[in-house]
Amino acid sequence: MTNPPTLSVIVPCYNIESYVPETVTSLVNNERDDFEFIFVEDRSTKDKTYEALLTLTKRLKNSRVIRHEKNGGLATARNTGIDASEGRYLTFLDGDDWLAPGYLADLTNAIERLDVDFVRTDHVQVTGIERTVHRAPEGRRHTPLDPRTSILPVDDTTMVDYPYAWAGIYHRRLLDQGMLRFHDGLKTAEDRPWIWDLHRRADSYAVASLRGVFYRRGVASSLTQIGDVRQLDFFRSFDLVLGELADDPEVGKLRKKALRNYCVVIAHQLLSRGRFERSIAARLKQMAAEALGRMSEDELEEALVGMGEERVYMLRRIRGGMKGVAA
């Protein structure tokens, strides 16, 4: 490639050998002379993901495979790809997912036409043979928007509740302005601080009604399916969000939204803690109690209103009682 690429596609891969053929084939069906494809192999331990990538990417133009010396997690793998990229725009694809033919050209056309910092898209969730369209939670489509206007309201699903990095495309100027990188070492919920940062600090964005990303759920190797200590990194993720909000001029309003998100995720993890080993489940409960304890009574009361009886009861009990909170 003689000129800098228009688009860099960053694909972190870890223990996904069986999915590599479909992923790479989908990228072959999206390749263009001005697109580059960067695979980051995060030191797989259970299969031959690296060897599969070396073989299969031979038929994908402008592709390369970078191998970590040790496993660093999804956030670090994405950062490795970002650092190696040269494109004017960047996008992400998880190594066990795939794209519809021509999707990347449509995605690139959308951000070029709208001339915004980033564009978010819908996606298709795949569970076994079932496919379900998931719409980005912003009704205003194909028009430039102020990213801050899509953070609130507190009690409704908004764009910061739709953090998937692979559901979008991002202008390199965001990286030049100190955005777009992930917090190194985060094993889960790595996209929470990332999406909050984009919506607080970027100047413009848009939502496009594109549905070309196919996202697998229920993959055995996915961290969401594994009940180990890495799952507890969501506490660090949300603490980072809250810490970065401290200096925001609208911290009073935005903190309420972040606290509600935090409580929703804590409740979800507690209610599904049966998948954890006993010692990790105990650690989850301890960290949940500590996180809830750092919130004032008024903040918690407001965060939990309307959350549902089961979740409110769980969070009340873990914290040690919160009288008067409406379900």
How do you describe this structure in short?
With 327 residues, the chain is of the alpha/beta class. Helices cover 38% and strands 16% of the residues. It has eleven helices and eleven strands.
Keywords:
11 helices, disordered C terminus, Glycosyltransferase family 2 protein, Nucleotide-diphossugar_trans, 4-stranded mixed sheet, Glyco_trans_2-like, single chain, Glycosyltransf_2, alpha/beta
Give the secondary structure arrangement, pairings included.
Elements (H helix, E strand, L loop, with lengths): L6 E7 L6 H9 L6 E7 L7 H8 L6 E5 L6 H11 L4 E4 L5 E2 L3 H12 L3 E4 L1 E5 L2 E5 L33 E4 H5 L14 H11 L3 E4 L4 E4 L16 H13 L5 H21 L6 H16 L3 H8 L4 H11 L8
Parallel strand pairs: 1-2, 1-4, 2-3, 6-10, 7-11
Antiparallel strand pairs: 4-9, 5-11, 6-9, 7-8
Helix pairs in contact: 1-2, 6-7, 7-8, 8-9, 8-10, 8-11
Question: Can you offer a commentary on this structure?
Answer:
The chain has 327 residues and is α/β, with parallel strands linked by helices. It has 11 helices and 11 strands. The strands form 2 sheets. The protein has a 7-stranded mixed sheet with strand order 3-2-1-4-9-6-10, sandwiched between helices. It is globular. The termini are far apart.
